[in-house]
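Researcher: I'd like a candidate sequence for this fold, 350 residues long. If you have to choose between options at a position, lean toward the conservative one.
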């Protein structure tokens, strides 16, 4: 793939050649329109060739002064521009006296008019050169800023995702320690194997990338397999996933902290345990994901409204979707708490 520098160089030579060819044609055709003979090309061609060469010198100077502020750049370029125009004027006089003396202007005003035209053409060239270079630099700076912003967002997303892992591991290792102290070696062994499967799945997936809802539910099942060792028949899982939502794209491990909160505040605090319900529905161009429990709700002790998991979920969705997302936390009429996430509905490409 060609780099930016060769592309910029090719663009310069294309525009430079086309521009001075245009100056030659305009000068020659204008002369013909003023009843000059066809041989007037012998004047127009040396002038365009001289402009082609002297502006290459101006280009070298402009490249050296590229970092100067605009006002200083204009002041520094006045001398070189006048020198370039003087060279072109000398070429004009030389061409007249050597090949075409009969085309000399009859008055001094003709020479002054030519010099003014030359200054105008060269200044136009300089202005276009500076404008194009400024636009290219601005585009490069914009692309660099966008790349830096994207990198910062990705780093922030990874931080938010990985911030949850120590919290989850702490709870799991505590449960594992309890199983060992209770001499439940079978339960401890199952938990270790399921923890290994969940962590492998978690590490194999980039937190910046989206996954299908089916893949997300697979990750949740791996997590719930671990919790099932802790709670056995105290934990009941219900799922209500609309078929057309299974291929929808969601951020990886989006639901895990919400499921963990529901287990922590609704299941773990009661002897009888509780029910966890996962649902997904499409409403127009929005995907609604629901994590609900039948615990004490938001009014109960230790309500989940300000937990790390929910706070990080809000922040992840804000970074990913801006204002195009919704997070709703409320009590359920039949008891318990419900978290609803609204995301733009996007399907995975085949």
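Model: Candidate sequence:
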């Amino acid at each position: 793939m060609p780099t930016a520098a060769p592309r910029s160089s090719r663009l310069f030579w294309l525009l430079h050649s086309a521009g001075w060819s245009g100056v030659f044609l305009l000068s020659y055709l204008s002369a013909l329109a003023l009843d000059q003979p066809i041989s007037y090309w012998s004047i127009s061609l040396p002038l365009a060739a001289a402009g082609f060469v002297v502006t290459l010198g101006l280009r070298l100077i402009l490249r050296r002064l590229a970092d100067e502020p605009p006002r200083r750049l204009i002041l520094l370029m006045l001398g070189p521009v006048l020198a370039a125009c003087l060279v072109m004027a000398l070429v004009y006089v030389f061409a007249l006296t050597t090949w075409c003396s009969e085309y000399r202007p009859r008055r001094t005003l003709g020479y002054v008019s030519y010099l003014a035209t030359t200054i105008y053409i060269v200044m136009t060239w300089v202005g276009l050169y500076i404008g194009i270079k400024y636009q290219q630099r601005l585009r490069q700076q914009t692309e660099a800023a966008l790349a830096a912003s994207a990198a910062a967002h990705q780093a922030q997303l990874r931080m938010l995702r990985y911030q949850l892992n120590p919290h989850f591991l702490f709870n799991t290792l505590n449960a594992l320690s309890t199983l060992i102290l209770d001499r439940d070696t079978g339960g401890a062994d199952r938990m270790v194997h399921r923890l290994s499967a969940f962590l492998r799945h978690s590490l194999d997936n980039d937190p910046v990338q989206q996954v299908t809802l089916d893949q997300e539910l697979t990750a949740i099942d791996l997590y719930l397999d671990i919790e099932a060792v802790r709670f056995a028949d105290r934990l009941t899982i219900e799922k209500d996933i609309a078929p057309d939502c299974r291929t929808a794209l969601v951020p990886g491990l989006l639901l895990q902290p919400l499921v963990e909160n529901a287990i922590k505040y609704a299941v773990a605090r009661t002897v009888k345990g509780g029910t966890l319900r996962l649902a997904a529905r499409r409403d127009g161009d929005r995907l609604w994901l629901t994590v609900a429990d039948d615990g004490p709700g938001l009014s109960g002790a230790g309500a989940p409204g300000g937990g790390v998991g929910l706070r990080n979920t809000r922040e992840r969705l804000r970074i990913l979707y801006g204002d195009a997302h919704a997070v709703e936390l409320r009590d359920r009429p039949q008891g318990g708490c419900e978290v609803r996430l609204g995301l733009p509905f996007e399907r995975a490409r085949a």
